[in-house]
Every structure is written in C-alpha cells, then in structure tokens.
Amino acid sequence: MSTTNQPVVAKKILFPFILITSLFALWGFANDITNPMVSAFKKILELNNTQASWVQAAFYGGYFTMALPAAFLVKKYSYKVGILVGLGLYAIGALLFFPAAAMENYFFFLVALYVLTFGLAFLETTANPYIMSMGSEETATQRLNLAQAFNPIGALSGLFVAQTFVLGALQSDNLDANGNSIYETLTGTAKAVVKTSDLLVIRNPYVALGLFVIFMLILIAFAKMPEKKEVKGGTSMWKSIKRIFKKERFVGGVIAQTFYVGAQIMCWTYVYQYAENLGINNQNAVNYAYAALGLFLVARFLFTYLLKFIDSGKLLMLLAVLAIVFCLGTIFIQGMGGLYCLVCVSFCMSLMFPTIYGIALNGLGEDAKPASAFLVMAIVGGAFMPIFQGMLLDIGGTGYADTTILGVPEVNFSFILPLVCFLVVATYGYRTYKVYAEN
Fold this sequence. Notes:
Keywords: Cell membrane, Membrane, Transmembrane, Transmembrane helix
Protein name: FHS family L-fucose permease-like MFS transporter
GO molecular function, one term: fucose:proton symporter activity
Number of domains: 2
Number of strands: 2
Transmembrane segments: 12-30, 54-74, 81-100, 106-123, 144-166, 206-223, 250-273, 285-303, 315-333, 339-361, 373-393, 413-430
Helix content: over 70%
Strand content: under 5%
Organism: Saonia flava
C-alpha cells in the first residue's frame, strides 16, 4: 500500500482540475441524451430500424475519425489546445441541430452528430492523460478515478433531459386508448405539423448544450492551465505506433474494446425497443435506462474494490461470462423477466472499459499516449454494431415482433449480437489471466 504524502490534487491547480473534470460530465451527457434518439427519429421520420441506427453510427463514428488526429495535435502543441479544439467542434456539432431541424433533414442531423463527436474524440483523447499529468505519478490513477466519477453524473443528466424535455414532449409518441400510434393515422398535413414540432423538441437541448460548451471554451481559454512539456528527443509517433502493434496484449485490447463498446451501445440503445415491445413507451422506458446506469455505477465501485484481491483479467473474464448469461435471459425469457435481464447486463459492463484500457496499456511506457488514441478509436464499435442489430430487427418488418427466430421475437433474438461481443471480451480476459501474465 502506498504511503505517499503527495496530494491527489494540489491546491494551486484545483481550479484547472475542476474545469477539466467537468468535461467528463459533458461527454457523458452527450452519450446518454443521444441513445433514446434512435427510437425518437425512427417514429418522427418514419424510418426503419436500420436507418434509425445510423444515429449511433454517426455519433460513434466521430471517435474513430478524430482520436488519432487529436493525439498528434496534443503531441505537437499542448493539452490545452487539444481541449479547446475539442470544445469548439463539440459546440459546432450541437449548434448544427438548429439548421438540421429547420431543414427537417435526417442526413443533416447525422452530420451534426458526427461533427459533435469529433469534439468528444478530442476531449476523451486529451482529458484522460491531462488529468493524470496534473500531479505526481503516484496519485495519477486516483486523480483519473476521481475525474471519471463525474462522467455518470453527466450521463444521468442526459437521461433526465431526454426523458423530461424530449421524449415526454414528442407528439409522435402518443398512443390512443388501444395502445396504437396516433401519429401513424394522421393525414399528411397534420403529420407534417407534428413532425416539425417534434424536430424542434429534439433540437432545443442540443442547441442549449452548444451554447454552454462555448461558455466552457471561453472559461478554459482564459484560465491558466498547467502543462507538461514533451521531453525532447522522444521517439516519434509513427515509431511508437509500429511498436505497439507488435504487442499482442495491446492489439487484443483494441479488439476487445471495440466489441465491448459495441455491446454497451446496443444494450443501452435497444432497451427502448425491447421495452416498447412489452407495451412500455419511450418516456417510461427511460426508467429502465436509469436502473441500468444505477447498477453500472454501484458495480463500478464494488468491482474497483475487488480488483485489490482478484486479477484484473480474471475479473474481466468472469464479468463477461455473467453478461453472456444475462444476454441469454434477455433473448429467451419473454416478458418483464427478459427486460430485467437486459438491465442487469449493465452490472457486468461496469468495469469493462477501464479494465480493458488498463490491461492494453500495461507496460507500454511512453508509447501509451498513441496507444490510448487507438483505444479511443475502438469506440467505433458503437457505430457499426447497432446497425447490425437494426438489420436483425428489420428481418420481418419495421416492428419489433414481426417474426420469430428460435421461438422468440426478433427484438429478443437481436441481443445475440451483444452476447457474441461479450464472448470476445471473455476471451481477452482469459488470455490476460492465463497467457499474458506468464509473458
């Protein structure tokens, strides 16, 4: 146990630390206000499930596009420059919702989300190592854990705004006494009025978010921020990249992270469709998203404590196996029991991202900076895997129970994809525990 007297955060940099820590909440907010938008856009614009899933493709595709450029920019200039560029792109993407709503163009909305996540890629690639650099190496992990604790606060805020100010105000989600959609029965003119109104409802929180991000950009731009200079004579980025891709532990980590993020986004996106198939509207389905996130938070603290006693690879493997069990319940238990199993998957996912991240970077030294960019790029799993799940949902039609596969509705069967993802994560955990530990 460490006996260092070094403070986790020195008083002289407390204000800069608070500013950068607030960014963790900002990207958590963006992530969780966007998940319910897949279902919302599907109804408003009358899309099929595959088309609606492009919301997540645009959102998480931005991470893949910009993570590596962010690492290059930070290496050439500074952490502060990386943060400011990220906030600028974040604000531009959010404000693009204004013309997108005016044009009532789905593609424009996707472009706005894509640009917004350019900013998130810069922030995630920059903020994590920046927080770790704000003090001694001995307290770096504690500092990062403290900052990361604010990410779920932003996530919960995003869910609250989605439920209260978006889903609760959408007229296209209204049902008649028999539980059928009123929107689908409207005439063309009446439907156009509802469409315009609902797109404005979606627009408003993103535009407000963009204005707040501009405020944060100005605040950080004028604040004096600590900065550690790059050591002269260090190896080039390209040489580091060549080295890290010779490391099986790292390459396996990138693959595992891609599949993990894909599983997370599928479970957190399609909980709304799963609940709707059980007669639960989107606004009320947010309560199950709250429960999933609550389990996620509690489990993170629990498993962080257990890491003191259990090998990280072994714990990762056990959690992935348990997630597979819950996915089987989600698929084959019809009714509320299946929904409860889907919520419980989040309990297993709680420690996966940071654990894979830590295992993959272990022993890389100065090569960890470019390596971390590739682990952020791995978030692209959240871009394309929901599309595959949308395709499964469209097998029998645009509904969620148009056909049965292995005796269950296609919305149930579609969770075979997260199950496969967790199988990949379990394999990486096993190899970490049994193979990499011996090397």
